[in-house]
Design goal:
6 helices; Glutaredoxin; 4 strands; alpha+beta; 4-stranded mixed beta sheet; Methane Monooxygenase Hydroxylase, Chain G, domain 1
Length: 221
């Protein structure tokens, strides 16, 4: 009887310890997710404020100096780099199993909308000033798409090398009206798909060499 009671006590103790470890791990994971969400939120908030600042200053120069293309281009390039950094941060978090999934999805939605807003501002500036820097839309798939990962890696390399290149990444299947409108407009049916300079469409993986050729050709035109 004593042995049976001892075994029973050991099983109960082991169960309690297991549950305690699970709860502590879950709680620590929740706290870590909060830090990740807060960190990404701060980055996105700064990007949104910079975007608003650009629009206001661009409007000011348009009204009082008839436009200042070089200044606008510099500011917009800086904003594009911030969005790229933000995108890399979200990609890292996307690979982790966050407990606050809905909060994270809301954050992604704000980010994609900010990217589309940037895309529109860049097109307006190109139309106004004539000189065009290269801009790439990258539609990817987060679920089991090795080609999307490879394409993202190539674009990261080029984005760091070309100072006048802006890369905007979109989850092709994200449930948002603006994303669906964008994929519908460009006829995006698979991932990865790349749109270069508003109209040149490439479906499937595009090598680093091919992209370099297109970007260098754009510089000479």
């Amino acid at each position: 009887m004593a042995i049976n009671k001892f075994r029973k006590d050991m099983l109960v103790t082991a169960l309690i310890i297991t549950i305690a470890i699970f709860l502590i791990g879950f709680y620590l994971g929740y706290l870590l997710d909060n830090l990740r969400i807060d960190d990404a939120s701060q980055l996105l908030k700064k990007s949104e404020l910079d975007s608003e600042s650009f629009e206001i200053s661009e409007r000011f120069f348009y009204l009082f100096t008839k436009g200042e293309c070089s200044f606008d281009r510099l500011r917009l390039n800086e904003l594009g780099k911030q969005l790229a950094d933000m995108g890399r941060t979200l990609t890292v978090y996307d690979n982790k199993k966050l407990t606050r999934r809905q909060s994270y999805n809301d954050l992604k939605r704000k980010y994609f909308i900010s990217e589309l807003k940037f895309y529109n501002m860049n097109k307006e500036l190109d139309d106004k000033c004539g000189k065009k820097n290269s801009i790439i839309l990258f539609f990817y798939n987060v679920e089991g798409n090795e080609e999307s990962l490879r394409q993202g890696y190539v674009l990261d390399i080029l984005g760091k090398e070309y100072n006048d290149l802006s890369i905007l990444s979109f989850d092709k299947d994200f449930d948002d009206y603006s994303i669906k409108s964008l994929t519908s407009f460009y006829g995006v049916e698979k991932a990865p798909t790349i749109i270069i300079n508003y109209e040149n469409k490439y479906q499937g993986f595009v090598s680093e060499g091919e992209l370099r050729a297109v970007l260098n050709e754009n510089k000479t035109n």
